[in-house]
Specification:
Number of helices: 11
CATH architecture of the largest domain: 3-Layer(aba) Sandwich
CATH class of the largest domain: Alpha Beta
Oligomer: single chain
Number of strands: 11
CATH superfamily of the largest domain: Vaccinia Virus protein VP39
Structural class: alpha/beta
Shape: globular
Distance between the termini: 39 Å
Radius of gyration: 20 Å
Bound molecules: S-adenosylmethionine
């Protein structure tokens, strides 16, 4: 028997790529993680044949970094379409921050829309990035795909919500996952708002089918990390927010997925936790920003768009 984990380590093939090949070729798994000697030869042939591997790539793949065991693959695609192309049961953690349209469309703040300062000439509706239509129907399609790609027995999912989208869509998560907690991200400094100025966002934490625990029982459900001012990318989140999620749930070599990549904060957090990463975003700006950022981080250990930590007190998560 050949363990897929050993094949990934020994032959330097991305787990997603191997999984895709196994699924496309209908190669049976033994004990969920192993391949029999009979099929191992065709796996080897596939690994050695570059042409086939190129064919096997997902449409839309724009970058594939592999440095010191850190594998990061980025696609430019719509989130649901991207998830549909990933093999079932192939991702350990989803940590994501969707671009909900609700808050932006319904709550007009100050001079205009929340992302108004990012307004650029020529962009649709004057918005700097596309939004994810947050109807229940669309959200259900998204969650269906998240559930399929997330590992059945061990998968964890973290989904960020602003207060508007939490009230309209948060409950739908329960139809798909076992919701374990609602985490509050306290941004420490106040933001905009006519009726109590906003200082927080939410993160729904849930498991897939099972009760795999987080790393440590001492982690609280209120997280204090400062918001990023004058960010290089609209709605850029501190890497520490994603680091807390991934640190709590990951083991070395896990695959983390973010279908709303933005500036790539979740990818940087995954690398810091020695995890593989697969993510996508629909926008040119995101792909440009995130691939440059990830490449610099892998090559020079420098985060070019978040230069300092946003943690405000002794960090109980990973120090
Ligand atoms: C809230 S931002 C993510 C910010 C990110 N967490 C960060 O720290 O930089 C949401 C992202 O979703 C992207 N997006 C919007 N609609 C999308 C869609 N249908 N599929 C994939 N990405 C989409 C936007 O381009 C935007 O970059």
């Amino acid at each position: 028997m050949y363990r897929t984990e050993d094949i990934v380590t020994e032959y330097g093939i991305a787990r997603e790529e191997l999984n895709r090949f196994l699924e496309n070729s209908a190669i049976p798994m033994v004990n969920e993680e192993e391949i029999s000697a009979k099929y191992f030869q065709s796996v080897l042939a596939f690994i050695e044949n570059k042409e086939d591997r190129i064919q096997n790539k997902l449409k839309g793949e724009v970058a594939d970094f592999n440095k010191d065991g850190n594998r990061v693959t980025i696609y430019q695609d719509d989130a649901i379409s991207f998830l549909k192309k990933l093999p079932s049961n192939s991702v350990d953690i989803i940590a994501t921050d969707p671009a909900y349209s609700g808050m932006n469309n319904k709550l007009q703040l100050g001079q205009g829309r929340i992302v108004g300062k990012y307004k650029e000439k020529g962009k649709e509706n004057g918005k700097w990035f596309s939004e994810f239509e947050d109807s229940e129907e669309n959200y259900a399609k998204f969650l269906t795909e998240c559930k399929r790609v997330l590992k059945k027995s061990t998968g964890h999912i973290y989904i960020m919500f602003d207060s508007y989208s939490l009230l309209s869509l948060g409950n739908v998560v329960r139809d798909y996952f076992d919701v374990k907690n609602l985490i509050t991200w306290d941004k420490v400094n106040i933001g905009m708002g006519h009726y109590f100025r906003r200082r927080h966002e939410y993160i729904v934490f849930a498991t897939n089918d099972n009760t795999r625990k987080i790393k440590n029982r001492k982690f609280p459900d209120v997280w204090r990390f400062k918001r990023i001012h004058n960010s290089a990318y609209p709605t850029q989140k501190p890497v520490e927010v994603f680091q807390a999620m991934i640190h709590a749930s990951a083991e070395k070599g896990f695959t983390v997925c973010d279908p709303f990549l933005g500036s790539g904060s979740s990818a940087i957090a995954a690398i810091k936790n020695n995890c593989r990463f697969v993510g996508c975003d629909i926008s040119d700006k995101s792909i440009e920003t995130s691939t440059k950022r990830i490449s610099e981080f892998l090559n020079n250990s420098t985060d070019i768009i978040q230069k300092k930590s946003m943690a405000v007190e002794e960090n109980i998560f990973w120090e």
